[in-house]
Write a structure and sequence with these properties.
The longest helix has about 40 residues. The chain is mostly helical and about 300 residues long. It is globular. It contains 14 helices and no strands.
């Protein structure tokens, strides 16, 4: 008996699922790079203002794009945009998100700040329904709910972690969720290079205006390297995250930010001696497990099951 060829709808569903898997892999890489950037920002924030750190993040993050611009179809053609207003809005929200996160690293342990920020996927999922008209199935809602319970295990409500400074990563998470939504909207007409470039330009201008009031000249070559490195690593991570949201729906890609807790806990221990509690590892197993389950679901769809 001859099997009927797959329908157009089935082929499209499998193609979308494969793109989602690629988006998930980009997100995992982006999170790894972002944790490296966050650790360097925490280190630098002990001696330098957050405004200065954001300026270096914006300027040198933009320089990462030069090889892509020179290799592409022409700088002018790649930077042409039909949505300058949305680029500006995305950039201002991104600056606020960076400010909130970088300030939180000054007062909180890196793993704690990042653990609190894991409410971001919940914000993203909620925002993706009205703004992006994305469908979130009950299995993904359940997996995200399990991830949220893992975050609660990590932060231990009532355990003393919830101070006024704990509101900073919450603000950062909410504004980051808005960034994810705006990137998804922009990616319908704009390339990843275009999106990251305009973020760098607008945020450099805003931070540059405020910089004279906060500037402290780095006292050593290591500090110069650290601040420049924040920008370069952040630029690479930004490109990776933009590709993730281009290929995968926000509600699929965002839960994989949970993997950052492992890197944050490891770096926090090695650099600052912050030994994660047993609850941190228990919660991490829940949040990572929820992300892996979503990947499993996407793999089944890609195989037509």
């Amino acid at each position: 008996m001859t099997l009927a060829p797959p329908s157009t709808e089935a082929l499209k569903a499998q193609s979308d699922a494969r793109e989602s898997i690629a988006g998930i892999l980009w997100m995992v890489f982006a999170v790894f790079m972002f944790v490296g950037m966050d650790a360097m920002a925490k280190w630098q924030s002990e001696s330098y203002s957050v405004v200065q750190i954001i300026f270096f993040r914006a300027v040198f993050g933009t320089l990462v794009l030069l090889p892509f611009l020179l290799r592409g179809r022409g700088i002018i053609a790649q930077l042409k945009t039909r949505r300058p207003g949305l680029h500006f809005v995305r950039s201002m929200i991104g600056c606020l998100s960076l400010f909130a996160f970088f300030m939180s690293y000054r007062y909180l342990a890196l793993a704690d700040a990042i653990a609190i920020s894991f409410v971001s996927p919940l914000f993203m999922t909620a925002l993706s329904v009205p703004f992006l008209r994305e469908h979130v199935g009950w299995r993904r809602w359940c997996a995200i709910g399990v991830g949220f319970m893992g975050v609660l295990v990590i932060v231990r409500p009532g355990g003393g972690l919830f101070t006024v400074f704990a509101l900073l990563p919450v603000l950062g998470a909410f504004t980051y969720a808005l960034v994810g939504v705006t990137i998804r909207l922009l990616s319908r007409t704009e390339s990843s290079v275009t999106i990251v470039f305009y973020f760098g330009v607008f945020s450099s201008l805003v931070a540059g205006i405020a910089l004279p009031f906060f500037w402290v000249t780095p006292v050593s070559a290591i500090d110069w390297i650290g601040q420049i490195g924040i920008g370069l690593i952040g630029g690479i991570a930004q490109l990776a995250m933009t590709n993730a949201f281009r290929l995968a729906p926000v509600s699929v890609a965002s839960p994989f930010e949970y993997t950052g807790i492992v890197w944050a806990a490891l770096v926090g221990f090695l650099v600052w001696g912050d030994l994660p509690a047993a609850s941190t590892w228990g919660g991490a197993l829940l949040v990572i497990g929820s992300g892996l389950y979503i990947l499993h679901r996407q793999t089944l769809i890609a195989r037509g099951r």
